[in-house]
Amino acid sequence: MPTLHDATGPELTALQLHDILRLRVDVFVVEQKAAYPELDGRDLLPDTRHLWFSDAGSVLAYLRVLADPGGIRRIGRVATAAPARGQGLAARLMEAALTIPGEYVLDAQTYVQGFYARYGFVAEGAEYLDDDGIPHIKMRRRP
């Protein structure tokens, strides 16, 4: 049974950060063939919140919540390991992330826009291509 973890940047152990980064690189860099700077300097900030499921020491699904200016929270790096897909882990992470009231934003890959809409996120503006040519759309969830 997967275990839910919730930690701020400074609370992460070196092993936890390593395993989280491995999943993110496996999904976003290798699987999606998007060579981009995965390390953006925000993971270890005290106001960054990391949520993930693990089982037998492996990170199965992950997301992080960043503090953006104006008290807005930004959800990002939502990823599920290929063998763990279809188990509802990303949905459970979203539910856990949204327990803190407030305004949230995210930049969704357009093919999962409907997933985020289930949690009250609404598209803002037009679809755009990120630096790697992957279609995205900005979405917002107001309190």
Structural commentary:
Helix content is 22%, strand content 38%. The protein contains 3 helices and 7 strands; from the N terminus they run E-H-E-E-E-H-E-H-E-E. The protein has helices spanning 14-31, 89-97, 113-117; strands at 3-8, 49-55, 58-68, 72-80, 104-109, 122-129, 135-141. It has a 7-stranded mixed β-sheet. Strand 6 and strand 7 form a beta hairpin. The protein is globular, with a radius of gyration of 14 Å. The protein starts with a strand and ends with a strand.
Can you give keywords for this protein?
single chain, 143 residues, alpha+beta, seven-stranded mixed sheet, 3 helices, 22% helix, globular
Short précis:
It contains three helices and seven strands; from the N terminus they run βαβββαβαββ.
Largest sheet: 7 strands, mixed
Number of helices: 3
Query: Which bin fits the share of residues in helices?
Result: 10-25%
Class inferred from helices and paired strands: alpha+beta
CA-atom Rg in angstroms: 14 Å
Order of helices and strands: EHEEEHEHEE
Q: Uncertain regions: pLDDT < 50 for 5+ in a row?
A: none
Mean pLDDT score: 94
Q: Which strand order does the major sheet show? A: 1-2-3-4-5-7-6
Overall, the morphology is globular
- End-to-end separation: 32 Å
Beta fraction of the residues?
35-45%
Total number of strands: 7
SSE inventory with pairings:
Elements: E1 3-8, H1 14-31, E2 49-55, E3 58-68, E4 72-80, H2 89-97, E5 104-109, H3 113-117, E6 122-129, E7 135-141
Parallel strand pairs: 4-5
Antiparallel strand pairs: 1-2, 2-3, 3-4, 5-7, 6-7
